[in-house]
Design a protein that fits this description.
- The structure is a homotrimer.
- Chain A is an alpha+beta fold and about 350 residues long.
- The first copy, chain A, has two domains: about 110 residues, Rieske [2Fe-2S] iron-sulphur domain (Rieske Iron-sulfur Protein, 3-layer Sandwich); about 220 residues, Naphthalene 1,2-dioxygenase Alpha Subunit, Chain A, domain 1 (Alpha-Beta Complex), CATH 3.90.380.
- Chain A contains six helices and 17 strands.
- In chain A, strand 16 and strand 17 form a beta hairpin.
- The longest helix of chain A has about 30 residues.
- Chains in contact: A-B, A-C, B-C.
- At the A-C interface, helix 2 and helix 5 of A face loops of C.
Chain lengths: ~350, ~350, ~350
Amino acid sequence: MFPKNAWYVACTPDEIDDKPLGRTICNERIAFYRRSDGQVAAVEDFCPHRGAQLSLGSVCEGNLVCGYHGLVMGCDGKTVSMPGQRVQGFPTINAYPVVERHGFVWVWPGEAELADSAAIHHLAWAESPDWAYGGGLYHIACDYRLMVDNLMDLTHETYVHTGSIGQKEIDEAPVTTKTEGEHVITSRFMHGVMAPPFWRANLRGNGLADDVPVDRWQVCHFHPPSHVMIEVGVAHAGKGGYDAPAKDKVSSIVVDFLTPETGTSMWYFWGMARNFAVKDTNLTAQIRDGQARVFAEDTAVLEAQQRNLQRHPGRRLLMLNIDAGGVQSRRIIERKVAAEDPRRLVA
Amino acid sequence: MFPKNAWYVACTPDEIDDKPLGRTICNERIAFYRRSDGQVAAVEDFCPHRGAQLSLGSVCEGNLVCGYHGLVMGCDGKTVSMPGQRVQGFPTINAYPVVERHGFVWVWPGEAELADSAAIHHLAWAESPDWAYGGGLYHIACDYRLMVDNLMDLTHETYVHTGSIGQKEIDEAPVTTKTEGEHVITSRFMHGVMAPPFWRANLRGNGLADDVPVDRWQVCHFHPPSHVMIEVGVAHAGKGGYDAPAKDKVSSIVVDFLTPETGTSMWYFWGMARNFAVKDTNLTAQIRDGQARVFAEDTAVLEAQQRNLQRHPGRRLLMLNIDAGGVQSRRIIERKVAAEDPRRLVA
Amino acid sequence: MFPKNAWYVACTPDEIDDKPLGRTICNERIAFYRRSDGQVAAVEDFCPHRGAQLSLGSVCEGNLVCGYHGLVMGCDGKTVSMPGQRVQGFPTINAYPVVERHGFVWVWPGEAELADSAAIHHLAWAESPDWAYGGGLYHIACDYRLMVDNLMDLTHETYVHTGSIGQKEIDEAPVTTKTEGEHVITSRFMHGVMAPPFWRANLRGNGLADDVPVDRWQVCHFHPPSHVMIEVGVAHAGKGGYDAPAKDKVSSIVVDFLTPETGTSMWYFWGMARNFAVKDTNLTAQIRDGQARVFAEDTAVLEAQQRNLQRHPGRRLLMLNIDAGGVQSRRIIERKVAAEDPRRLVA
């Protein structure tokens, strides 16, 4: 269950630099490619001639050329030409609004006339030289909402990520959740704790002592359709915590774009944006590698959870205080889905 | 959708030399084996005792012996004997008409009483010392009719086989299609073109210059149930093209037996028969290797097309002039299926 | 189709020594683990919080701790605690009666209140220093009843296990089957035959000549729900056969616990218990390796049989005299299933 009238991250720009990319987003099979002017285009991955997969073709003079019989498809879903054929009567295929922005390619899998690129999630860090970013992509065989739950409740770090970012104090710190319009915020603050390995490495990376108590914070932000940005950081204890001056803390934004592939699978664009040591590309690579390992731990847990839930479709799950972030986020998702199709309100 | 009252290529003789072969043809699971007199036999791959797969057994004194409890199956589907048992009352399993001819094993998966071995497709080149043949077998996850389309419209060579037999001029040459009874012929002639790599190699293989313009032809012949023989060749330009004397041309017959496995998968027996340098076994191997690479390119395209069509079962495809060969061939297939079961006319 | 109110072998003790084990038994997904007192526990593999797979977690102070959010599950299916939560109202999950005995872990996947550990199959050899045991575990994609058939009719040894324990005389020796209550016994005795390779090795292993005629026996015992113990052995001919003195024979018990996973897959705990050269661990390993190879041959046959039967669900199989052991054993299974749910009598 997902809203289709929304901007989702479809891919990173490098994925379409050399050749078209076929990817399913919200059950839509889409061929993405880069036109000669550098603009990204997205059309249904289905040649109107005989149903070949257009993304197996090539880009020629900015148009997508079917790799079977050479039909030339335009970015509007209308056939431009085909050797030896008059193409005026050819059926049109879907074209999808698509925008490259903030280092990602965004697609609108729903009704094209409703797409407004101004609604694309703004990523201030992506446009500022004071920030560095590194990330990756995982395919996960689970409903993307299980990942929303996961990210809006970081209690799981203690258990899933024992060796990196987990620590017992996460459990013990109270968590607060609030919804402001379509924005859900879950916050947790820990005071005077020892930093876990991932954060000790970051402290050192920023030239700070890693063997003294710190104040640690996690502020999770959900925005529809399914973006979760998490402010995370540690400051030397007593320096102001979240509000400490830059010299006393290390902080980052954990970036999570959850793009549904089907009802039971998703594309997980994950990464980390940081505003310290931004020119240190080794540090960027090191953080990305660490994050890749940590997030792979979630993958195993979520795929097993998905299988368990599919086997027991009727079973009610608990909604505890720690689940409030996921519960409130899902409520926003449900409202958006219902707005698209009121009949789905009940389902 | 396939006629069952027809002779299909089931396997090549070497596949049953050492042991039985289990293969599904037109949804029939069949055990093929060679009897002691060298004759091929084909029975249902299901032991009447407990349902074991007979093709996992062995051949003993010309009979198929079940590898589970030793039931001895005759080539007529009647149990011959079983250790310690009286077998008169054992149920009979299906036996299939099967003939070894022209270097292939042919099976009739439909009603046995209608099978007439005189109707087996005659392959003159297979019986003549003036011809050499080499080929292979691919399993492809697509409706065999997608391969009929593919072979009865070689326009795709330009796009799918860019580096071997494709060339831009294929697109530009007009194609003509006609049906004579149950025989569909699609022809394309190109004049004064440069030969693509595959044909340059063949010209050299036949001692002809490969750097001069040639006339090139492709004449595709469909015969039911699903055999496509394609006369292909190049002659030095101006020597008569298709009708040029042997010393000025190289020509071959592309051999394609498309045997349905199920409704969405097929066995593809492909090969090439040539009437030049017929004793050059190195050339035979070289052509086969080249063809194997070329035909593997089709496999990827067709399997993706099959997946696309299954996702959009209701969508109408275009039928252009270049598709006429496939369209007319499918019409013959449909008539034969309807003749077997009038109720299927509508489907 | 399987009775659920029965003791099945779930795993061997070593499988849960280091971490929990998730295994499906009779369609029940179960997490097995060892408590701090060494006792084995078994609960549903479904965390009541959000449906995570409990067996991916860890054992802490004798309780199973969910690897997602740290819910602590008790061996009775009741949540013990969860960080920051009051758990009194949490739903209870299933707990399964489980007992470690005779070198195996036994589980009762049905109604817990009916479980009586006194009903666990008694294995005298497992408790005696005069016996040695070695074995293994296979996962097989077939209805466990096909394996019951297989083991209660050793005629197949001649065909499936040609190079090890098969010999033509098996076929030729009469087989007798009788049912005593819920115990089915199939016996076959061969007199004055040459031992096949597996038994020649065992004769040598026990210091006996392997090149003289022997009397050979196979006595198969089925006990519900699906345990098959087979007394097998050879004695130098004329020394009394099955009843020969220990110095003139080698004998073993083939141990087969067939545990349904689903309706079409099973866990096969196989092994061999012997009462000669019991301290020779090399011999134990050698026998186990040989048995592993022999029983892998059955796997291929049974999985192909299962596929064949699923394709032809309506087809009636033969029930010959050699099948009497399987037929009578299945009848006992059917009675037990019907006793659990009279409506299933018809199915």
